[in-house]
Amino acid sequence: MGLSSFFKNLFGTAKESATDLANQAESTFEQAKEAAAPYIDQAETFAEETLAKAKEASEPLLNTAAEYASQAKETVSEYVEKASDSIGEVIDSVKEKAGELTGETKTVISDTVADVNEKTVIAKDEIADEATDKE
């Protein structure tokens, strides 16, 4: 019997000690929470003010960046149009030159065919004349 009362006293005391410690921890936590509340409020206020200042400071920069982007877009649009026109002119010029060269090539080929045809006729006539002379 002495042993069971020993354990009851031991665990009963431990239970009371754990309950006391839990109560003290809860009390300490509440005190810390109350003590930290003003600092948390100050930190929130500081964060809000800093964010507002950052927005205020960045607004002119954002406006300026938007203006520059708009100007750049206009400038690029002008150059794109000019480049497009230039490329169109180059393509037209190449087509024209290719057409001229094709026409010249056709003329040269026609002249060459006519010359070869004429020479063939002359050679045929000469051969025919020689053949007639030998008979």
What structural class do you assign from the helix and strand content?
mainly alpha
Low-confidence stretches: none
Mean pLDDT: 75
Q: Judging from the principal axes of the Cα atoms, what is the shape?
A: elongated
Biggest sheet overview? none
**Helix content, binned percent:** over 70%
Can you tell me the number of structural domains?
1
Total beta-strand segments: 0
Protein name: YtxH domain-containing protein
Organism: Flavobacterium cupriresistens
Task: Provide an overview of this structure.
This is YtxH domain-containing protein. It comes from Flavobacterium cupriresistens. The chain is mostly helical. It has one domain (1-99). Helices cover 99% and strands 0% of the residues. The chain has one helix spanning 2-134.
Descriptors:
135 residues; mainly alpha; 1 helix; elongated
In terms of topology, how is this protein built?
Blueprint: H1 2-134
TL;DR?
This protein has 135 residues and is an all-alpha fold. Helix content is 99%, strand content 0%. It has 1 helix and no strands.
